[in-house]
Amino acid sequence: MAQxxxxxxxxPYEEARKLIERVRDYPPERAxxxxxxxxxxxxxxxxxxxxxxxxxxxxxxxxxxxxxxxSRLIVFIDDMDGLRKVPEIIxxxxxxxxxxxxxxxxxxxxxxxxxxxxxSHMIAQLGSFLAPVDVEYELMRSSETYASGRFxxxxxRILKKHQEIIAIVxxxxxxxxxxxxxxxxxxxxxxxxxNSTLVTAYHPDRATVEFSCERSFGGAHGCAYKGEQSVLGGxxxxxxxxxxALRWFVLDVDYELYGKDLIDSARLSGQIVxxxxxxxxxxxxxxMYLDEEGRKVSKxxxxxxxxxxxxxxxxxxxLKYFLxxxxxxxxxxxxxxxxxxxxxxLDALREWSTLDDAARRNSPLEFVLQRDSARRFDSSIxxxxxxxxxPAIGSADRELLWTYLVAYDPKITGDPDTERLARTLMDCxxxxxxxxxxPDKKAVALxxxxxxxxxxxxxxxxxxxxxxxDEIEKSIYDLGREHYDKPGKIFPVIYRALLGQERGxxxxxxxxxxxxxxxxxxxxx
Length: 525
Ligand SMILES: [Zn+2]
Description:
By secondary structure, the chain is an alpha/beta fold. The protein contains 23 helices and 15 strands.
């Protein structure tokens, strides 16, 4: 195999080069820091997966480029955030309602007593959610970081510069939110709410604010307590855009990716971190996912595809492959689009096994393959083909389906990796069929004369259960000759009836393998 020396130009490499430039003059022991945020007021979702994996891809590129400086990927959990509304997804929503406005780190676990708080439950979910993708990260909890005093120096600076921060943020708010806006959200020492407090005076000299617990939102109300308290040690948090800047400043964050919806927040947080004496991280915004009608898929809405679904309908590597595609391009993502990404992934894998080590570094699979991933797929079978065979043969007969796939391409049993991946594809196709196609299987619309031809074929098959592949093929030609000027015109009709498409495998061999009886019953029109 010839040694190639390709320019490494995938987007994570381009990002990593900028990062290497940024950290060039750091002392050797200072790590390059990647950050990603997770809001534990809800369950992790596909967006979360992208927010953790994409910086991890850049971090991998940073290592591939030979950078010896250590690096860290911090997943920062904003568990000081107050619960603004009771999520739809939790059980016993009434039991959580009294805790509205309190930080999620202080709200009991709505899913039972499995964890010490609402936030801990969601964080555990995040852990099991990320486990299958083999990504290395550190969790950092906002509640612990504030309480430990690690944010105190930054909080003192924010307090000292509160007027300048207000001058940056207030003009960007709706008029009704401008009045009384403060960077600080004191945790009410009387009722425990954090969204209810209104700051009335600042005392940078003693690191305190005065506040009145009087705001109402989403059905929760302040307790009317008034007092003065320290902003240090977890007795207050700062508002989101300020909080982002505080993390960048205190944790020395070098790199962060965020969704397009946060462009304005990132710009403001960048101004604030400079005011504190820090430097905004590198990074860029990525495009959002769109549904089949081109609408933005948000975490809470609609038919957005979940990670659990990906795992049921496609190998996990395909999800990683999807997230490796250029993040600056908006992509449609809906269930029916999964097979297309699987086929792209199979193409990439076929190519990958022909490349030398150097060229492999510039394949998306450098970032996607895991320790246990199949490393070759030495077959021409595509996922779309498997998806089309399942309806013809039915989901119950796994072994028959496998027999057919082997007959179609004997190379799928040629090596263990190819066979393992082919079996995974088959199982995914069966899941897809069982979940979506079978329940509302509708007959393909055939014209009356076409239905009659299909019934005639089904009758012939029923009467000739032992026919050979050649005999079946011949009977189909006879049928075609009877009804059309060219006998071949019967084939698209049969494929449509059987597979819902215009083309398909050689019918004689296919029907023999699947057995004439089975095909006859699949052809009941
Ligand atoms: Zn209160």
